[in-house]
Amino acid sequence: xxxxxxxxxxxxxxxxxxxxxxxxxxxxxxxxxxxxxxxxxxxxxxxxxxxxxxxxxxxxxxxxxxxxxxxxxxxxxxxxxxxxxxxxxxxxxxxxxxxxxxxxxxxxxxxxxxxxxxxxxxxxxxxxxxxxxxx
Length: 135
Prior knowledge:
This protein is of the alpha+beta class and 135 residues long.
């Protein structure tokens, strides 16, 4: 299976059931810039009223904005590991450890009942990151 198709399949299976995840097309980029050949998969709307907290999921990586509203892109290929540093019951920050030594924090606020979306989002990232390193 080609990487782009694998990423789309993982998003469909893992993220689609989350109420704050929406499949979108290239007309709805929410101000993010894509690179050539990068395909849009969907968006995770952290706070539906605040588009600046959204995470754009693409075939190449994750786009989001930092506290200063600067666009950040993290390629799946850059992610070395993923970690949650908070207690399970209140966890909403996913820490991405990058090959460069830098750490990036993603806030995943959604939950359904007592189940936090963060755990499914983490599962998605872990599966996608594993794929290119094995092939």
